[in-house]
Design brief:
This protein has helices spanning about 5-25, 30-35, 40-65, 70-90, 95-120, 130-155, 160-180, 190-200, 200-225, 225-230, 235-255, 255-265, 265-285, 290-320, 325-355, 355-390. By secondary structure, it is mainly α. The protein is globular, with a radius of gyration of 20 Å.
Amino acid sequence: MHTHRIQINFTIIQFLLWFSWGTFGLFYIAYLENLGYSSKLIALTIIMSTVFGVMGQYVLGFISDKTSKIKYVFLVALLMLILFVIGFGFAAKHLFPMIMVMSLIGFVWLPLESLLDSWILSTKGLDSSLYGFMRAGASFGFAIMTLFFGGFVIKYGYDIIVYAYVVTAGFLWIMAFLTKTDTIKEPHTKEKIYVKSLLKNKAYVAILIYSMLLFITHMGINNFYIYVFKNIGGNASHIGISAAFAAFTEVIGFIYARRIISKIAPLKIFLIVGVITFFRVYLLTIATTPTQAILTAILQGIGFSLFLASFKLYVVKITPTRLLASAQTIAAGVTFGISSIIASLLGGFLIDDYGIGRFYDIMNLVALITLIYIGFLFLDDYKKRKSLVQ
């Protein structure tokens, strides 16, 4: 298949991946809250889903590296996800079956994005610097769906999130299946070699710590968005509009990511993202209306797009090609997994026991710590580069 055609196909796949997830992933927490589950039980659900998701990252990443068949691992995981979401429709009103199904959903959902990224970045003849443009398709898909879907949820009820996901994810599966690519094949090695090699990579470990801290605030706010908006008179429709604002902003960020990355060093971009995240959390803290909270999502979109485009390519730059799938899945497990577990623990207990105000206090503190940490990394790198010049 022609390289340009492959790029278009991957952009469409990114679009459909997040277009479909916008129907379920953004609203299932609001659905559980609507069913009467406490924030602690919702936090437990998120934690179990995330723990299984981290396991899925390692398992599916390992299988992908061993078989060099990332596409087919992606297709099987997506098919399983569709079946599990159908199961959620039957299990949602029963605590233990619901937690069990959400754990299985996490096991296959969390690795999907990193599997797709690895598939894209390991495709022969494809310019990896175009990743930002292709990832813009994901943000655009998420924005289109969430902008309107919140209104449908209010009008038709939360059951619609299951039906909508199954239909849209079905189109995604077909599109991915029809996309033919030649993937770079690397020699097989043992999993423990992967882990040791990556853990000895100081640049890789340092950036993982930063991404984990950054996403504690990101996942904390996103996981408990329903409480954030209910606190200022909002509802599920406002959640959708806010997500759409963030995603539309991400589209712009991803489109210009290639130009930005070519002119600004990764650590400087990460420092800028740290500043943006700090102000986003603070402004959300002082928001008093749904409109004000929605507008802060613009900062989220800018920060997220700059971070993700730079982060994915930075990981490719600092890790060997043969470890790409493992490096990306471990990074995703830390960024979206461990951070989500910590954020869920904080949110679940703080909101129930102390209120949303204390939750905001902790999120602001974590955002400040993140900014200080990346500031030190940037200064250390600046001193090293300056000494080399001298």
